[in-house]
Known about the structure:
Blueprint: E1 5-7, E2 10-12, H1 14-20, H2 22-40, H3 47-71, E3 76-78, E4 83-85, H4 87-106, H5 116-133, H6 139-157, H7 164-195, H8 200-207, H9 214-230, H10 240-246, H11 249-274, E5 281-283, E6 286-288, H12 291-310, H13 316-336, H14 341-371, H15 382-385, H16 387-401, H17 407-419, H18 430-455, H19 471-489, H20 492-502
Amino acid sequence: MGYEREAGGRGMSYLELLNLAAPEAIIALAALAVLAADMFALRELELHFRLAISAMISCVGCVAAIGWMLALPEHGNVMGGIFIVDPLGQLVKIGLLVLTLFTILISLESNFTVHAGEYFALVLLATAGMMFLVSTADVLMIFISLELTSLSLYMLTAFDKRDVQSAEAALKYFLFGSMSAAFTLFGLSLLYGLSGSTSLEQIAASIRGPRLDPLLVLALVMTVIGLGFKVAAAPFHLWAPDVYQGAPAPSAAFIASGSKVAGFFVLARVMATGFKGAEGSGAWHGYLPGWVPLLAVLAGLSMVVGNFAALVQTSVRRLLAYSAIAHAGYMLIGVLAYGGSGLASLLYYSLTYGLTTLGAFGVVAVVQQQTGGDRLSDFAGLSRRSPGLAICMMIFILSLAGIPPLAGFVGKFYMFSEVLRPGSPGMGLLWLVVLAIALSAVSLYYYLQVLKQIFVAPSPGAGTWVSVAPVTQQVVLGALALAVLLLGCFPGWLVQRLAGAMAPG
């Protein structure tokens, strides 16, 4: 039965559609290849070799998808936004694939599971879900992509069957995720009922008016609740500390990096495109109802809860979880700056944050393997036991704290300046930027506590023993630290590409 749809002013066949979605198809095929290879050829091998071969197949799939997008750039818009291929989306998908590659590489020395094929297949399927998520402007496709991503991440959280904390974290993640999915679906269904369309652009055209419809307000609140869970913004963050602490370290790193990039991208797209005309204002003494004041309140709450809760943590994983909640607040400021270079600032911050948090979790994974814990005291004397790891962790921690010249500082400066730019939807939110800067200063305390243990505190009962991390992990963590340093010293390399991808035509 023949089927054609308009895309870019021309008919589109199934073959042309497959060509547009080739990167996602490559990742899906790589996931199937990993499963097949592990099931039929690798079962009798030692776990180390199974992990290495499965990781190699997964990396080949990611590199092939990146190569496809670089060598054969395509443009298309299928069925009014169900699947969009544009330069910005391609660049974000390349960023997601790079984060996936690093996740795969830091998983090589893991021993939390014997199911190597299934683990890497789930990582790839979650990546495919994230790629679809950034390639659509249709609420139905957004929901399906969110669920593909979420289901994969639930299972990755529970992958350490020997750890009760892993099972508990996965159960909490699943229960909170199911509830958030219900809120998201309810909000998106109200948007469909108000507009008669699932396209974000057509929804915006239908709901625009001088006053906000009560049902539109309800749809906005429900949608923000659902997506707020995905990005771990307060008060929808309760799952994050347990998941970051209980999940296997590579899984937690992937949840903290890749899902944040995709989640904030789709949140910005839904707010700025689907609710266009319903921005309102969060300016001091200039409040108008809309999504801007709503997100401004969530941003402030996330920064306050995340930073102050992190002050009392003794587990580095939980500290990174509350730090992620605080960073969700910072990134919500980037959502408020959506439009023009505002989106570029959000993407720069989220991508560099993803690299940084991947590296931090990578160091935590090594320390946990060698000491059996992730408490602050387990990092005591790390600079004398493993100087290379200590230097990498210092770069990651200082970047999270926003210390120049690292990428975290540049990202915050870029984002804060964009939200105050004339014409930005978030213009007038000086109070929020001042709050963010003040709480960034608060965050220095708990970040420096980690560095104090690494560089100042003595190794308890360990004398002068030296720990040597596996070569693969040293190389990967070194590459991540170098990337964070270079992107901070030379931010124009990424910023110019993001700005160029957003340029019309």
